[in-house]
From TrEMBL:
Xref: Pfam families: YbjQ_1
Organism: Streptomyces purpureus
Family, as annotated: Belongs to the UPF0145 family.
Protein name (database record): UPF0145 protein GCM10014713_34660
InterPro entries, per the entry: UPF0145_dom_sf, UPF0145_YbjQ-like
Amino acid sequence: MGIEEYGGGQDPHPDVLVVTTNDVPGFQVQQVIGEVFGLTVRSRHLGSQIGAGLKSMVGGELKGLTKTLVETRSQAMERLIDQARARGANAVLAFRFDVTSAADVGTEVCAYGTAVVIARA
């Protein structure tokens, strides 16, 4: 059921293609499995909050928070891919991230999309 021939390059998940588009050129949706998501909530580290507060006074990138958000998004995406794979999908269409503040103590990141089975047209 894999789609190795799509040419995923350095994709760490060659068996599950994840795209933000509603279709994949050259492929046809054979089956729509349904919504899948990966969710994680990260609390804010006190040290990074203090550093962010100081940095906000002088301006510039909040590198510690940026690193945490990248890791959080990656974890949410991993969970989405795991769920899609477990349900028999080889692709996720209309992939998106939703990021919200969770009760002012952390950040909630949800990766979501539509799990499908695609085949070369």
